[in-house]
Amino acid sequence: MTAPIATPLPAPPTAPPPGLIKRLGFWAALAALVAVLLLPTPADLPLAGHYMLAILAFAVIVWMTEALDYSVSAVVIGALMLFLLAYAPSAAKPGVTTAMGTGASLGLALSGFANSAVALVAAACFIASAMTATGLDRRIALTVLSKVGAKTHHIVIGAMIVGFLLSFIVPSTTARVACLMPIMMGFVLAFNVDRKSRFAALLVITTAQTASIWNVGIKTAAAQNMVAIGFIEKQLGAQITWGEWFVAAAPFAALMTVALFFIMTRMMKPEMKEIAGGQETIRKQLQELGPMTMNQWKLLAIVLVLLGFWSTEKVLHSFDTTSTTIAAVALMLFPRIGVMDWKQSQKGFPWGTVVLFAVGISVGSALLQTKAAGWLAQLIVSNLGLQMASAFAILMLLSGFLIVIHLGFASATALSSTMIPIIISVLSTVQTPGINIVGMTMILQFVVSFGFILPVNAPQNMIAYGTDTFEARDFVRTGIVITIVATALLVIFALTYWPWMGLMVHQP
Questions:
Q1: Helix 412-429 and helix 47-65, axial crossing angle in degrees, nearest 10
Q2: Which of 352, 346, 368 is nearest to 411 (CA)?
């Protein structure tokens, strides 16, 4: 008897009461907030910037320790910005000493909600909901896997191809992996493979890591990319099209995908070379889905047209990514033409993620507007001797810093929100001749997605860990090798491809 392909994942254990680390993290965050507030304000830093540094210290510790739920932390941080900045003069008016008041501080605290990138993330969540509502993502996954054969290595390749394809049309890492994990576990059960086998671990870990790799390669694949795009557009006045991002990042992601296959199949070598009856099982599960429904055809048409608009931006038309995505969502919800109604779209919709995203952008924007990011950048540049360093040296130093600090973050969106504004300020402060601030910021955003080492470094890693198919040490030991290879590849690209494209230093 064949097990259904969409076998649900085991229910995650109910969240325990806040542990010692979370309690300590919360009190440490409060202590850091108060300590920074009590420090004397430097002469070259506005009072509003001083307050923002205190809020930044609080946010970083809360996000690193997960002392508060991310959605809750976003509301708390927004409230801190609202009331603390209300008592500081506006940094935009140097001669004014009166406090800006809650009216102006409210504008800063909510500024992220007005960013077009937030609309894009929300629209991406709607697309992910449509994929789930129609079952198109599951059909695509099964169709690809039915073509790859029953050899274990071929099944792994099939899973990687599915992850790659869904990165184009499901603009949410969590949604992609949440869709794929039940399918992978369905295979494991249908093939009568032990849940704790190396094959199961290989399949699950590779699926999660593929998602992280293609977060680098595709602009719309992950929310953290939208954070960086939002700051680049607002602070540097530059736009990076979907195609420009893809040309810069896809070769890196493609080579990393090849490397991932060899790393995982060598370090997690499966017990068997072929699954007896595996191919037949997959075909039966695909047949059980029946023919393509009208809604699946309509959704497929909409996302393919949308992908066409994304990839031809500034080539065949002038519509930006956000505008075309919102138009696609409108079609998906439109009566008769659409594929779902409002109630269906709201099932599991991650509004908390959207709020976190918006408040994260508010924090970054406020750091820049209050001169706090520039002050921190000047401190970093002078202490690390980056003033006249080469673009390559700056890239490697900041990349190493991001890789290390990511070990403490469970959200690349939070990491991007706190670090990209500071990175933009650092790059704006250095005096390296011809440095391409936009290109360097984009490359460093690629590094923000390097959450390969710990299960807690990304939501997709935690979804994979929740399948109970591997031990954390398996993820760590393979993740360290993946990170080393990614760093080596980063060096190679930073010495060849990206300079040739003019992404690090402007071409004369």
A1: 140
A2: 352
